[in-house]
Pyrophosphate--fructose 6-phosphate 1-phosphotransferase
Amino acid sequence: MKKNVIVAQSGGPSPVINASLQGVIEACAAYPDQIDRVYGGWHGIEGILLEELVDLSAQPKEEIALLRTTPAAGAIGTCRYKLKDEQTEDYERIIEVMRAHNVGYFFYIGGNDSMDTAAKVSKLAKERGLELIVTGVPKTIDNDLGDEEFTIIDHTPGYGSAARYWAYLMQNVNEENRGMCVSEPVSVLQAMGRKSGFIPAAARLADPQREMPLQLYFAESGHTLESLAENVNRQLQQSGRCIVVVSEGFDVGNLGEARDGFGHIEYGASQNTVAQVVVNYLNSVGLKARGQATGQVPGVLQRSVSIFASCVDIDEAYQVGQHAVDIAFKHGTGWMATILRKPGETYQSYFSHVPLEIVANSARHLPASWISPDRLDVTDDFIRYARPLIGDGWPDIALENGFQRFARLSVSFIEKKRPVYLPIRFR
């Protein structure tokens, strides 16, 4: 008997998350004897709880093809709905909806919290006698999924594009800083990364020969506002200008933090930003150069701008989505698709799988061995690791009347079969 599929997305989006969605949808078409319809959970697990399911099998093929270069998660939406162990009603509702719609396969695209949810759904389905195969598809621009030995996953889809964004941004920021240094000698930029420094580290890819007056402050650096100011002023005395990239997780004290549905600090909604605190502090203690420090916060642009997407990242995001479907059929429930790197000087990736329980709620930091002794830079080992991920060419993005053409799916929900339900966290 044929079964249906639900695919959903969770957490912050990325420039390539929809490429993984496309990979899942198109790979499912290769199993016509086992799969009937592919449904999308509208805004992630919330869509499953609310029984708001979009029939992706009914979408025009040209729109599905455009998912490859459609950024963020607007195509079927995402959410930050945290499923905790005590939310038994929510878990039972998920199983109820899956059973009602003859769902035999569930693909969840997301990071560590999402893999935790996928693992719990897989376990509960077994306990409730539902034949449901649950497979995770990795996603996070932070690259903080997995272990610091890179045995679980080498890198996550989304990171290569965020790294490319920062490499290109820094090239342009350097030109701005060169031109304006007589009045704005210090340029401070804030990069995403709550606890992991992979994104600010990518700024160094713009300058592997270390010709820019660039200082990087990771969440793992251990520096303070005081040491940052000392380092910046020392650089100003040497070159008359300085570019500072600071992680949003760099400790500058209380920011009036807001938190998202996962309990993570949501820096874009907090009362202050790390960049502004740094700028204010530098200007208050004084600069060893004429002029002032200025700050910029790219914010969600670094995860939602498709023109900076890495072609390598797009291809791998699509392929890991396809691979997840193959894993489901070959290995059954409870796995996450993963990307690993072949040894050797030339970059080559390959795809494997790991148990969901291993990656659930995992957290990877920038390895200490990749941070320079003064904790203001990365080593050449990091550059060798990250450089291949940003690729070389520009993505081929469809244009219409001179503007980017993104996928636009028809969002009409399939017929509901269960009573109306209000998720626990909505009450």
Summary: The chain has two domains: 3-158+308-363+391-426, 160-302. The radius of gyration is 22 Å. The first helix runs from residue 17 to 28.
